[in-house]
């Protein structure tokens, strides 16, 4: 599978480079702000001479894209996609250690969604990989590495910090949390390597302003479904997100379940889906994060509910394949885009997964993943 992922990364990078800059404008959005950062400009204004749309990521992300920004486009674009693929690929392998067939199956199940993200030169594979790596390092009691992965995820997209909820479930919570806080502070201050203090404050204010402004849109999310299906008034969107967060956090109160590997694993799946369906600005490439969570749950816990296979079918048709040419453009435009159908299977899956977490103390013995059984035998 590694050869397949590597080959597809090369082919996709070459395809979009040969099509011309319009085909990899997202890559320009990521790398060009580095030069604006060096010039102490507001990163969050429009720069049509450099790229279309506006930059919405952190100043730290702009700094870290510097090594790619100075390279020729063909090389930078390939390396950017390669980093995304590598971080996601190796995190996926670590989800199923010592189980090559399960590793290969998982990578097949998430392949189309990872390619959708790569075709858009997006950071979503990288973000999904970092969130999974946070979990893996916590499982292996590597607090410093877990904190670093969490901080990197948060400075790519703010909602990446959601995986930090897992920190509750491991011994040494305060030590783990302090490592995360340390890395968040270090990365937040990193732009001072090239910025004066006034410019630093100005740019962070610009980031805050554009994040607030972008929160007015509604795309592929629970809010998008509620609005397009039922005309839900958007002035209550904060209430929907607060209720969703409350439902997500509620199982974390079950302290007796924290020591259960399966509880933590199901919670990871829930978080990966949650950060997408409750992100009102989620786009099609973002769904590699949610699909990663769903396929992890499906592979390990499909035996726990008769709804698993119907959900898998819905995810495959409406979430994964809807972004491919197998779904006619006319149908996508008339139905999928209007009714936000891509998000619907993930909303249903999250409700099922969350119900399992909420009933874990009563039915925990039924949630025994193949991975857990392998660890017990070892």
Features:
378 residues; mainly alpha; 2 domains; 67% helix; 0% strand
Structural commentary:
- There is one protein chain.
- The chain is mostly helical and 378 residues long.
- It has two domains: 1-214, no CATH class; 215-378, no CATH class.
- Helices cover 67% and strands 0% of the residues.
- The protein contains 21 helices and no strands.
- The chain has helices at 2-19, 25-31, 33-38, 59-64, 66-69, 73-95, 100-109, 111-119, 124-139, 143-156, 173-189, 197-214, 222-230, 237-249, 261-277, 287-301, 308-320, 329-339, 344-358, 360-363, 370-377.
- α6 (73-95) packs parallel to α9 (124-139) and α16 (287-301) packs across α19 (344-358).
- The chain is globular, with a radius of gyration of 20 Å.
- The two termini are 26 Å apart.
Question: Briefly, what is this?
Answer:
InterPro entries: GT87 (IPR018584). The protein has 378 residues and is mainly α.
Outline type: globular
- Could you tell me how far the N terminus lies from the C terminus, measured between alpha carbons in angstroms? 26 Å
Q: Assign the structural class, choosing from mainly alpha, mainly beta, alpha/beta, alpha+beta, or little secondary structure.
A: mainly alpha
Q: How many domains comprise the coordinates?
A: 2
The SSE string, one letter per element, is HHHHHHHHHHHHHHHHHHHHH
Q: How confident is the prediction overall: mean pLDDT?
A: 92
Number of strands: 0
User: How many DSSP helices?
Assistant: 21
Describe the biggest sheet? none
């Amino acid at each position: 599978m590694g050869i397949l992922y590597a080959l597809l990364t090369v082919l996709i990078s070459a395809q979009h480079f040969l099509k011309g800059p319009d085909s990899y404008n997202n890559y320009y959005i990521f790398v060009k702000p580095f030069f604006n950062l060096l010039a102490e400009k507001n990163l969050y204004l429009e720069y049509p001479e450099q790229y279309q749309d506006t930059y919405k990521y952190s100043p730290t992300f702009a700094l870290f894209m510097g090594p790619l920004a100075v390279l020729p486009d063909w090389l930078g674009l390939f390396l950017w996609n390669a980093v995304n693929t590598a971080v996601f690929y190796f995190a996926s392998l670590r989800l199923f250690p010592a189980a090559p067939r399960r590793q290969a199956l998982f990578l097949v199940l998430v392949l189309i969604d990872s390619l959708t993200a790569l075709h858009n030169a997006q950071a979503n594979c990288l973000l999904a990989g970092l969130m999974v790596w946070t979990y893996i390092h916590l499982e292996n009691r590597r607090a410093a590495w877990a904190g670093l992965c969490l901080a990197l995820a948060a400075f790519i997209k703010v909602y990446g910090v959601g995986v930090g909820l897992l920190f509750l479930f491991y011994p040494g919570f305060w030590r783990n949390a302090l490592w995360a806080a340390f890395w968040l502070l270090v990365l937040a201050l990193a732009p001072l390597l090239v910025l004066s203090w006034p410019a630093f404050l100005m740019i962070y204010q610009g980031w805050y302003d554009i994040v607030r402004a972008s929160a007015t849109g509604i795309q592929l999310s629970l809010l998008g479904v509620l609005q397009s299906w039922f005309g839900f008034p958007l002035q209550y969107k904060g209430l929907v997100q607060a209720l969703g967060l409350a439902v997500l956090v509620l199982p974390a109160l079950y302290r007796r379940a924290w020591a259960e590997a399966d509880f933590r694993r199901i919670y990871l799946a829930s978080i990966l889906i949650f950060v997408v369906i409750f992100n009102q600005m989620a786009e099609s490439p973002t769904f590699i994060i949610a699909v990663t969570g769903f396929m992890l749950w499906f592979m390990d816990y499909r035996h726990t509910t008769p709804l698993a296979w119907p959900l898998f079918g819905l995810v495959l048709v409406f979430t994964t394949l809807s972004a491919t040419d197998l779904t006619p453009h006319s149908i996508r435009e008339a139905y999928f885009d209007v009714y936000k159908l891509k998000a619907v299977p993930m909303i249903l899956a999250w409700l099922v997964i969350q119900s399992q977490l909420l009933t874990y103390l009563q039915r925990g013995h039924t949630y025994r993943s193949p991975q857990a059984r392998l660890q017990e035998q070892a």
